[in-house]
Amino acid sequence: MKLFWKLFCSMVLITALACSTGGYVLIGTQFRSSLDREVAALYEENDLLRFALAQELAFNPLYSRKELAKAAGGISITTGQGRTVSFRLSDETGISLGGSGTLPVEAAVLTSQLPAGQRGWMMEALGDGRIFLHAASPLALEDGILYLENCREISELFRSRADQYQSFFSLMLILTGAVGVLSLAVAAMLVRPLARLSAAARHMAEGELGQRVQVDGDDEVAQLSADFNVMAHRIQRQVAELKAAAKRQEDFIGSFAHEIKTPLTSIIGYADLLRSRPATEEQVRESAGYIFSEGRRLEALSRKLLDLIVLGRQDFPLRPVPLDVFLRRVAGAMEPPLRHAGIRLTVQAQAVAALMEPDLMETVCINLLDNARKAMEGGGDVLMEGLAEENGCRIQVTDQGKGIPPEELERVTEAFYMVDKSRARAQGGAGLGLALCRRITELHGGTLEIESEPGRGTCVRVHLRGGEEP
Questions:
Q1: Sheet holding 447-453, edge to edge
Q2: At what angle do helices 358-375 and 281-305 cross, to 10 degrees?
Q3: 389 near 468, Cβ under 8 Å?
Q4: Assign residue 95 a region: left if phi > 0, alpha if psi is -120 to 50, beta otherwise?
Q5: Residue 450 has what DSSP assignment?
Q6: Could you tell me if 464 and 447 are in contact, meaning their C-beta atoms sit under 8 angstroms apart?
Q7: How far apart are CA 437 and CA 447, in angstroms?
Q8: DSSP H or E segment with residue 246
Q9: For helices 220-276 and 281-305, what crossing angle results, to 10°?
Q10: 119-to-55, 101, 139, 152, 359 alpha-carbon distances in Å
Q11: pLDDT one-digit tens code per residue, 232-282
């Protein structure tokens, strides 16, 4: 059974049960209250009769039971409603000795059940459908006990209760119908948020992770809607994180492929130098040293790029490195590709110590020099400087290349963004160099600044901490 029908049936049944129970209890309570009033009136009439008989005994205290019963025939009591009260005097066995009027009930049943010296009452139904309250109280005389009996008809009280039950039954039918209509509306209102939740869950199952449901009020359904939204947000965030992880893996592959080219170019260049022409022992040793150092850097760089891009590591140890020695080593690694492109590289560096992770910062410098090479297709001069600043130091690379349009400057550090896509792809670019440079610089707690003028060249500054004499 659907929740809608469960709610509908529950509300109708609970309302019908509560109202019927309340109605029956109310009618029953009213009936018992009326019955109690009738019993009180019955006893009042009995007390009036006892008082009248007591007055009779006061004039002649020597009355026997039979004499008193005979004298009682002349006693008449009328109530405020104009009703003459009938009574009867009987002995212990229930035999009538006299009285006034006629009582429709037998005496023996009640008098035989009364405790000694106490009065009492009982309800008796006759064969014609009439119902009476029958009361009896003892009178002690010298020759024995007489029982004073009187009764009241309460048939109307029972008929009134039956009419009330009939009216209540008719009212309950009308009320149940009204409650049924109202329950349909209430059930529909309660189920509507659940329907929205169900629809949103189906949309999410189809891949629409941005689905959210409206939260109305602060009840349990509203709390469920709020929890659903929190769950949907977390799922969306986790999916986004998974996509970001996949993107980081793609970036790693692209960055690794991008970064591996420069050390391989240096290794191939120096190896070709050794292979193609005679060289002195010093040149052989220098070339072999560059080949070895670039191979080691390539090995270390692959691990660090994996930590930086895929694993998101942010705690690479930084150490003070002499800036002049560091930049000369970078220049030596880039010498073969720059010379092949007809570019003269000049290094001007002060003897200051910069806080850096050497392999990662060498990646930044090589990327900047490689970008300068790509921007100067006809050759030219590139200046790489290491300068002390007030609160640190900076590495600055200045070229005489094509420059970058002003509207492109803010986007050149975005991953996979290329100013001249056709030229970049022809030169083997992937749009990852400056994005990686910015990330590594931020990892060092530094900043990356780019100034460029189309047709005149570009100047890139990397600000680092340090700046002290090594």
A1: 343-349, 380-389, 392-398, 457-464, 447-453
A2: 110
A3: no
A4: beta
A5: E
A6: no
A7: 10
A8: helix 220-276
A9: 170
A10: 20, 21, 10, 16, 116
A11: 888 888 888 888 777 766 665 655 655 566 667 777 777 777 777 666 777
Supply 178's token pair: 């009204």
Alpha carbon distance 250, 293 (integer Å): 27
Q: Compare 361 and 210 and report the one with higher pLDDT.
A: 361
The pTM of this model reads 0.46
| Residue keyed to tokens 């290491």 | 386
Judge whether residue 460 has pLDDT over 90: yes
- pLDDT confidence band for 163 (50 / 70 / 90): very high
- Decide: residue 93, CB within 10 A, 0-12 exposed, 13-18 middle, 19+ buried: exposed
Helices 220-276, 358-375: crossing angle, 10 deg rounding:
70
Residue 106 CB burial class (10 angstroms; 0-12, 13-18, ≥19): middle
Instruction: Dig out the tokens for 449 from the structure.
Output: 């600044």
- Per-residue pLDDT tens for 349-376? 998 999 998 888 988 898 899 889 888 8
Task: Kindly compute the dihedral angle of the four CA atoms of residues 350, 352, 354, 359, in this order, to the nearest 10 degrees.
Answer: 60
What tokens does 114 get?
């009364």
Q: Please state which of the ranges 5-14, 51-60, 115-124, 319-328 shows the lowest mean pLDDT.
A: 51-60
Q: What residues pair up with 354 in beta bridges, in sequence order? A: 321, 466
